[in-house]
Amino acid sequence: MTTGHRITVEKSDRPVRVAHAGQVLAESDRPLVLRETGCPDRYYIPAEDVRLDLLTPSGTRTYCPFKGTASYWSLPDAADLVWAYPEPKPDVAEIKDHLCFYEVEVL
């Protein structure tokens, strides 16, 4: 990693819930929290705890030199609301098979 830039991934000791327009999209008592220099903490939720049936894959892809290439999912009224790193870089391998949302309620 670049000097001064740091990423840590650890198990959160608090459950999280994600809702949009009153509908629960994800709820988990086993999220990971990713802390990255210059970024807000992000909660990565196991795919099994996400309502994937409500999400539509997006064509959007972004690249992070520290995490890898992200894929996105959308709702009809919220484009690219969710992302994941299908093949994350080795330093953040734990986030594989986990999804991240912009807005997460920490319970």
TrEMBL record:
Name the species this protein comes from: Streptomyces afghaniensis 772
Q: What is the protein name given in its UniProt record?
A: DUF427 domain-containing protein
Q: Which residues form the DUF427 domain?
A: 16-103
Q: Which InterPro entries match?
A: DUF427, DUF427_sf
Report the Pfam families cross-referenced here: NTP_transf_9
